[in-house]
Amino acid sequence: MVDETQHSNHKLYTVHLFVDDVLSATGQDYSIKKAEQNAAENFFKSRDVNAENSELNVEK
Known about the structure:
The chain is an all-alpha fold. The chain has a domain at 13-52. Helices cover 90% and strands 0% of the residues. α1 (2-25) runs antiparallel to α2. The chain is elongated and about 50 Å long. The chain starts with a helix and ends with a helix. The mean pLDDT is 70.
């Protein structure tokens, strides 16, 4: 299970870096990059909380 999650994190992180590179290459405004970064961080946070809740439910 852990390996699967780490693999998923790596794929999402790679996509995040790719999007960041594309925005940099096209000269997009910094605020667009910041919004994309915030969206990615919020996704990771909510996914991590969901994973913790799932683990707690399994332990009960």
